[in-house]
Amino acid sequence: MDIDTLRTLVGILGNIISLILFLSPLPTFSKIMKAKSVQAFKPDPYVATILNCAVWMFYGLPIVHPDSLLVVTINGAGLVIEIVFITIFFTYSTWSGRKKILIILFIEAIFVALLVVVTLMCFDTYKDRSMVVGMIAIFFNVLMYAAPLTVMRMVIKTRSVKYMPFSLSLASFVNSIVWCVYALMPLDPYILVPNGLGSLSATVQLILYANYYWTTRWDDDDENFEVQMSSTSKA
Predict the structure, then answer these.
(1) What is the distance between the alpha carbons of residues 226 and 181, in angstroms, rounded to a whole number?
(2) What pLDDT was estimated at residue 234?
(3) Whole-number pLDDT of residue 16
(4) For 57, 101, 197, 234, which has the most beta carbons within 10 A of its beta carbon?
């Protein structure tokens, strides 16, 4: 099996796992639709992921970074999924909540448009375009790790892993490892760095889960608290 075929197979596996992660908030939106209210849920993870997917989609296009079709496919799918999620969120939000979502999406749209124009007008080579868009994509990925960091801090403080799902942490770990392997065939530092950080973050989550599983009070019911995590790069 040649390296290109192996890279494609690894990328397809990464697409499948990433798609599962993109769909992980489905139970949250099921609750929202049943209650016909966003309740205490926040739109932040979803509007942030929309921007993240848009930037990674642009990065994977042939005019920026050739031979990255699988980066485009998964982030394109993620973009569609997040748009559906944010539409549902918008539908059941209050007017002030809707206003906030519209403002953020407008700012994101302007940012992406400027990124596209500046990249294509000011940089002529694939290397330069990949560097500019890749560095920005890494920056946004690092910002998205704030959510799992908050969760990990809560786990340590409460000595409970009730609100840090094992399945999500494990899937995030496997996903990051798969994309790290993909980024090594051939070397793509802009995919390798965020997923390397993602694998480290997920590893810490799994260690915390093993450490605090036995001190978790699973019978405690707290319906007013829900953790929203965005724990990995899907690139």
Answers:
(1) 33
(2) 58
(3) 95
(4) 234
